[in-house]
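Sample intake sheet
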Amino acid sequence: MSRPQKFRLGDLLVQDKLVTEEQLNQALGEQRGSGRKLGQVLVDHGWITEAQIAKAVARQLRAPYIDLAHFPLRPELAQLLPEAHARRMHAIVLDDPPSGLMVGMADPTDIYAFDEIGRLLKRSIDLAVITETHLHAALDRVYHSTEEIEGLARELTTELAGAETDLGDLLGVDSTSNEDAPVVRLLYSVFEQALRLRASDIHIEPQEKQLRIRFRIDGVLHVQTEADPKISSAVALRLKLMSGLDISEKRLPQDGRFAVRLKDGTVDIRISTMPAQYGESVVMRLLSQSTGMLDLEKMKMPAPMLAALRRAIDKPSGMILVTGPTGSGKTTTLYGALNALNSTERKIITVEDPVEYRLPGLNQVQVMEKIDLGFDRVLRAALRQDPDVILVGEIRDKATAEIGLRAAMTGHLVLSTLHTNDAASTPARLIDMGVPRWMVALSLQLVVAQRLVRTLCQACAVPHEPTPQEHTWLRSLLGAEADNATYKFGKGCPECNHSGFRGRTGVYEFLEMNLGLIDALNHPEPGVFAKAARAHMGGHTLRRDAARLVVEGRTTVDEAMRVSAEVDE
């Protein structure tokens, strides 16, 4: 293909009637004052989209327009152009037809970049036009910063092997913010990539022959890189320094936290270390400092569930429990409720291990068992602070349960979590801890049970015909509603890293206590309450909520059945 020719973008867009002369003149004035590109100014105003601009440019150049959101990228082909050059020249290798490599460019009029790409690839080039936004997402997916992380790991291995190298310099011991230390650069690269891929956890696991780094994305672990196991002790030591842990203690588990400032913002990191066979295993949970997601309205709860939760938090006293396994989003739900309650008229105290979210206006206390500052002790002290609302991170024992329930009986609103399988079994779990039945009956207002399910990637979701077994399962929960639904399946695309899923959402069930349930709870036979609770809940169960997401086209039948299999009914 011949070299692309220069042309005036504004004239082209007016000629194609995509913008008016007035809009173009206004955008040109803003461009001169801000230094931004003309196309970006037009897009920011909402007068045109990136795709419309790219298609117009493609028509002018007689080149194809490629929608990268739906294009099957081949990583081995894209990586023919080194990542640094791809990002600098806003380009990516798309295909390898006989005529020459097809290269997508976000700025196809950049003649110098076009010539340099040809020199680097040493092949003839067929030009395609792509959008800038899709390009950045594609580069992140293709390169995953794996090359950079592996290079830094090799550099650290080499420097650790050098007898003259000072270990303190390698680890940045002299300054906790020493960004030039090899291990610091390695870790920050890992943090950046984890944030870019929406990872919730980072697992650093020393094995016999390699140090494995894995990310948990949408609840599933993915291997990010494998490095020389010799660097595992240096990585663990540096992380301990960052989180203020005892660097001399390698035989006992330790927990801590720290914050890192990255390109895309600051992230809180909760760290847990544990001695394993080949070194210390480290798991880090990434906690967003943003409170935007803590809005109850944005949690996409079913309307009856949201109404029940709002009724409960509007009461001046009583206990609200959120149950589910680790990582099911219990704390997020509770903080959504706290965010709704947070005002200058209320004193709110939280007792947590650890403090996961930080909200202004709250009095948040970190439990520290090693200095005998447990949940029960902090909770007793909190009650002397004249609180209106108390959040207890987790009810772990009889003492904490009794203090929380007594507080709920004496004019305080108490929110907490409990590890139970479903809502109906929660009161029985408290009684099994040794709490009197009457105390549970008088104090408990609402129980919410929840799980997280993976949601379909909307970029690659296609219609799906359920199997007879799947249809029977759905019909048992939804009745005739299951017959008229359009089911979907994610076939996998670059947007979701070919998994078919992107993001997670909650499924819920709730049990709102009433006089009939209080009477049933006081019955000595536990089965009486369980039967009454399930009858009272009706269709508001985890299984039915998961099935509802299927018929709405937000998840797959398999995913809904997987979550449902965790619940006993």
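Comment: The longest strand covers residues 444-456. The radius of gyration is 28 Å.
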